[in-house]
Amino acid sequence: MQISAPSFSWKEAVRVGVLGGAIAILISLVGMVAAFGERYIVYGWFSMGQVLFLAPILFMVSLTLRREKASTSSKTVLHSLLAGAVGGVMLAVLVLLGQVINLRAVLVNASPRLYGMLTFNQGLPAGPFVLIAVTALLGAVAGAYHLLPPRWQRTLSQAVIWLILTGLMRDLIMNIVVRWRLVGELFKTVLFASSGLQPIGAIVLLLLIGGLVYWRSGQPAGRGFSLKNQPPTIRWASIAGIVLIFLTLPQILGVYFSEILDNVMMYILMGLGLNIVVGFAGLLDLGYVAFFAIGAYTMGVLTSPELRAEPLTYWQALPFALVISFISGLILGLPVLKLRGDYLAIVTLGFGEIVRLLVLSDWLRPWLGGTQGIQLIAQPRIGSMVLNTQEELYYLFLLGVGIILFIAIRLKDSRLGRAWMALREDEDVAMAMGINHVVVKLLAFATGAVFSGLAGTIFAAKLTSVYPHSMNFLVSINVLALLILGGMGSIPGAFVGALVLIGAPELLREFAEFRYLVYGALLVTMMVTRPEGLWPEERRRLELHEAEEELKGAEPVPAS
Amino acid sequence: MPILEVDNIHSYYGHIHALKGISISVKKGEIVTLIGANGAGKTTTLRTISGLMKPRHGHVRLEGEDLAPYKPHEIVYKGVAMVPEGRRIFTRLTVMENLEMGAYTRTSKPEIEQDLDRVFALFPRLKERRRQIAGTLSGGEQQMLAIGRALMARPRILLMDEPSMGLAPVLVEAIFDTIQQINKEGTTILLVEQNALMAFSIAHRGYVLQTGEIVLQDNAENLKKNPMVQKAYLGME
């Protein structure tokens, strides 16, 4: 917290512009701008590539504006304009430099195509000036935006964000609506182009969303629609509706999106499990993939005819896999009972590597297949039906997520859940409350392990094979990252995190190459702007924002 | 028979001989205070009673039963609750959740409700703030919460470790009034304090601890008049 807000000076404007420009140059040179060049938001007008290099400049300007106040409104706009222009100048310098020196020798992505995109295809000499003009204008818009009343700010920002999202999601949305003839035609001709939105559709969408947001923000306050506040009929109808949607999703979305959903749900399963270990009990586990591997390999070993003369079926092997996961959770838990924080993280990391190396080793090759992995793993059958397509496996995942979700919710408010929470807060005092920390800690590890083991068994059955290289350390990191993104300790957060971190990169496959760069940027941004996560647990939100709310006097303590 | 009997205990931190044969007894309904300077072994004594440390020699008995075989969390079930030094509330849980954690060992819902009412009657501030995150409470309120949390275990004996620490004098007085009231409602208290004057003003009896040994024991009135105590702990010449 600053004691007095320093004014947004010329010097600061230049600094912000340089920073924004530097980020934009980085994004351009790693190739993201060019990769998204064909991904139009509004067809023929601007693409995701352009959003990617303009957004950092805009972001830096608005971040600074939020922190610091200029003396007058005209100065705010002018300084923001300057900051934007400085960012544009930096990019222009990159373009001009690229004409003189062959940057491509070192920076493979500094291609003519990139320069073309940066200059909005205006060529030389006009291009760089167009670029600077656009960034300056955007800077000024950011400045002006800052001066708007909050209601208009919300309207504008949400309309733009939804516009970009809708443009990006074109394929997904078309995939769904194409089944309804009339709506499909309407969407195809008015809203969407072959990539991104039609200009006319974009304008309609902007007005529609803007109007909606403006109208809603005028409504009396409240935390929005909540199922809890509805009469029971509506409540049950909504729940039934949601369930119905989930049951019909594969039919609506088709194979490709079902595959994405399968992946997302696999990570949701692991996310819900790690959420118990890290989110509830506060035990930082960096080797979580180990349990996934143990679940998958147990399934493999028990059901593959390669390794057993009389292989079991999926359903027969499942209980064994879960029990072995549970026991392996206890085995990890026992040696780390007295470790906390960093030391715990290091040991669990080691555990993950040990499991990976064991399944990779020649020593265990006769039993676990070594580098060759295990093939011909059984697929689950229901009656005479074999679940082997993406759509069918979707239901298996859905069932798994449903059961695990129910268990996770029940655990959270249970006595055990409370004990985990107390342990996370203060282990000594938890003991002084009568909590058996040994049992409670081991149960956290073991429960988390079972959830992950279940994900592993479905994974094995889905691919009908397991390989050591799938049991990568990055899986653990992905799961942890999705929890941080969604909100540590929050059950819906695990869903949101998995959708964003696992689902979104699949939808925008241009991202795949830059996945970890985007993760990093996303996590840093989150920590700065929304440290509690996208869908935080109520407690974390209170903890991080209670001071603000008290200042606003928004929430009087209800008297009883 | 005393509720709590500490019989000639010796506790060690590694090679450091922290308690050199401490004997204390607390009878039902008493407030007994244990005073001493920093490092005298006050907190170590409490840690040994609550099972966080095991004595190398000697016994801790609760109503005649030796506590040696029990783990710290089992001793809570036996009826020993603690208000730890420096409050140590669960800062990220709400006030209500902190109190519920205090009742972790209990199973009877109506009894818990009853105790909750009692705690809220003692500390109306906690009732007002029961949905608030405990970390945002003021120091005094946090101390109230720490005491309330311990009471929720409905202990047979309540161990308090320096409840006056870090509080303004006016708050210290309020807290001590409450301690006295809790005692009058029937809770036996072992109070560890550096603030000897305040401690003697509410305690029935007291022990003076110096470098791991009891050097004096008497009723509070006599201790207050004792020249050694006056010089060393009450700042009188």
Provide a short characterization of the protein structure.
The complex is a heterodimer of chains A (560) and B (237). Chain A has 560 residues and is mainly alpha-helical.
Please explain how this structure is put together.
The complex is a heterodimer of chains A (560) and B (237). Chain A has 560 residues and is mainly alpha-helical. Chain A has helices spanning 10-29, 32-35, 48-67, 73-100, 112-118, 126-147, 150-168, 170-177, 181-191, 199-218, 232-280, 289-303, 314-333, 341-360, 365-368, 390-412, 415-425, 427-432, 437-463, 473-486, 491-507, 515-529, 538-552; strands spanning 40-42, 46-47, 381-382, 385-386. Chain A has 23 helices and four strands. A two-stranded antiparallel sheet of chain A has the order 1-2. A two-stranded antiparallel ribbon of chain A has the order 3-4. Helices cover 38% and strands 27% of the residues of chain B. The interface between A and B is medium-sized, with 27 and 33 residues.
Q: Compute the separation of the termini of chain B in Å.
A: 39 Å
What is the tally of helical segments of chain B? 10
Biggest sheet record of chain A: 2 strands, antiparallel
Which structural class do the helices and strands of chain A define? mainly alpha
Number of strands of chain B: 10
Rough outline of chain A: globular
CATH classification, class level of the largest domain in chain A = Mainly Alpha
Q: Indicate the low-confidence ranges of chain B by residue numbers.
A: none
- Strand arrangement within the widest β-sheet of chain B reads 6-7-8-3-9-10
The number of strands of chain A is 4
Give the overall form of chain B.
Answer: globular
Spatial extent as radius of gyration of chain A: 26 Å
